[in-house]
Amino acid sequence: MLVHIFYQFFLLGCTSFGGPIAHIGYFRRHFVEHLGWIKPERFANMITLSQVLPGPGSSQVGFAIGLEKAGWLGGLAAFVGFTLPSFLIMLMLAYGASTLQSSLDGAISGLKLFAVVIVADAVFSMARSFCKTTPLKVIATLVAVFLYYLPTLNTQLLVLGFAFLIGCVAPLSPIPEAPSKSLNRFAWLPFSVVIIGFVLCLSVFNDSLFAPFYQAGSLVFGGGHVVLPLLQANLPNISDETFLTAYAAAQAVPGPMFTIASYLGAFWDGSPDILNALIATLAIFLPGLLLIGAFLNHWQTVQNLPRFAHIIAALNAAVVGILFAAWLNPIIPSAVHEVWQWPVIVLGYFTLSKFKPPIWVLLIAFAGIGLIAAQ
Prior knowledge:
The structure is a single chain. This protein is mostly helical and 375 residues long. It has helices at residues 2-15, 20-34, 40-52, 57-94, 99-103, 105-130, 134-149, 153-169, 188-202, 210-219, 224-234, 240-252, 260-266, 274-302, 306-335, 341-355, 359-374. Helix 3 packs across helix 15 (306-335) and helix 12 packs antiparallel against helix 13. The chain is globular.
């Protein structure tokens, strides 16, 4: 089972371009619709939990899927499988293979178009599942409009809080049955580890390589785009040029953008070092994964409480709005630059939703389109 989990996530780690929002689309298509590992409602709740906790959102969702499938070892297998490809590529770039990115520009541009398709499929599929009533549609629409014009971390937290309050006072969902799980007091152990680790990084280990990356992973909401300024402030020994190169590389490779830490950590002592890259990578991912492990069972139990059912319905609708706003900006502007690309996107979406081909078929097709267009 663990090998199978690793294999499935490794395949996605090799092909999941487009950033954390696109990764959620890949996960939904692969693990919800294709493999049937989890139900759509549970998947939506995992996304909601990842939105309200610090850390790498898509990696947290992937870890939660592995955790649900085979416990902590399953979560670890999912994390390693999904992260390993981008870690290796970032490490290779750090060792001087910087020409790789420019040689693959055409294929990457095509894969960005596919990211537009896969996120559109995720948004509209989730909207059909979680925005069935007029009040839920209104919540999703308001969230999308608000985040489109004010795309900041504070705004995202604000709209989630707004959805929470709406769910507290409005009947938005049928009352579920009594929860089948009880709260597990031992689940708070990972949360305690995160807090103790953060305190130690601020005091005892403040000058170590581990500390700044662990602090960033403990504080950052919103994924790789948000983590850059915090890391830059905490890593004064890393040059601005190195930061910009790492940021560009993290956007170009598949898998989680938090592997920007792999590149930056490799240069901790000035010249590339594999061990430093590994330490930095583990440090930045560790808090977010521990927090998911700490709260996932609690979240799934609380969501079945009758008084909480309406809150979950509102939060799920808000997540649809968040994904839709991210699809409009930055995914579409970063991928679509020519008029001819729109018919390609529409055809790709129609093919995906109508005929449901394997993801790798469309990945190859869109990469080929990008290479041909670059000639």
